[in-house]
Amino acid sequence: MSTHAAPNKRITVGDLAAKKQAGEPIVMVTAYDYPGAQIAEAAGVDLVLVGDSGAMTVLGYDSTVPVTTDEMLMLTKAVRRGLTAPLLVGDLPFGSYEGSDALALATAQRFVKEAGVDLVKIERGGTSVDRARALVGSGIPVVGHVGLTPQTATALGGYRAQGRTAEAALAVIDDALALQDAGCSLLVIEAVPSQVTAALMPLLEIPVIGIGAGADADGQVLVFHDLLGIYGGPAAKFVKRYASLREAAIDGIAAYADEVRSGAYPGPEHGYAMADAEAERLREMLAGR
Ligand code: KIV
């Protein structure tokens, strides 16, 4: 009889479509390392995105723009090692896919071959629609991302909600429809008024994951560090904190520091023992030198 627990059943893109059909909300969260992936899986999420938000959350850049393909691949491979059942989405970083279909394909293939992602995510409509079509045509499932697209936030006027006028909302909707038409399996819609999502949903057949886009999407995604309260600073309006890990971590490390300084740690129970006779022999050997 095997002593191994049965591995969790792997979720498929088809399962997400079935959830959409059944009106069952889809849960996505970001992760950037092995323990984060294991935690997300243990919590029972459907998808894990190694977002380029990792540029800021774990690499300390002040935007997502500087992160490189190699840096993203390192994070993504770590997440892959910690994940069994949830679908794994790799985020192609700024500058790694926009220039041409060939560039997009070369980068996406690295994410599939080296990091084992199930899908890749790219931002924007426009030329990204062509890139999405080329990737899908080459057999790589793609997640589109519309609304606030942080890689090009400067061109959008900063990190702010998109689609707040009827014309701007129509542009977001047209991008979404074009990405679906290009063969995207899934769409992320970020930071738009809930009315825009509500207007979009009847027009789309693919599952839509919202972030700051209201309650009408088929699912929601939040950034791991935001929802767990690992950051100290202000968060976007749509972030809800479900834990306060930063405070818990600071308290834990401060208690450790206090005990090291007071001599309370380590106690005898944290050390290794040597038989009295061996300790005595060691003393004799040292005395005999
Ligand atoms: O990079 C990221 O984490 C994302 C999500 C916010 C959708 O793109």
What does this structure look like?
The protein is an alpha/beta fold and 289 residues long. The protein has 2 domains: 13-243, Alpha-Beta Barrel (TIM Barrel), CATH 3.20.20.60; 248-287, no CATH class. Helices cover 41% and strands 12% of the residues. The chain contains 11 helices and 8 strands. It has helices at 13-22, 34-42, 54-57, 69-81, 101-115, 127-137, 166-181, 194-200, 224-227, 245-262, 276-287, and strands spanning 26-30, 47-50, 87-91, 119-121, 142-147, 186-190, 208-211, 219-222. An 8-stranded parallel barrel has the order 1-2-3-4-5-6-7-8, surrounded by 6 helices. Strand 1, helix 2 (34-42) and strand 2 form a beta-alpha-beta unit. Helix 4 (69-81) packs parallel to helix 5. The mean pLDDT is 96. Residues 30, 49, 51-53, 91, 145, 188, 190, 211, 221, 223 line the site of 3-methyl-2-oxobutanoic acid.
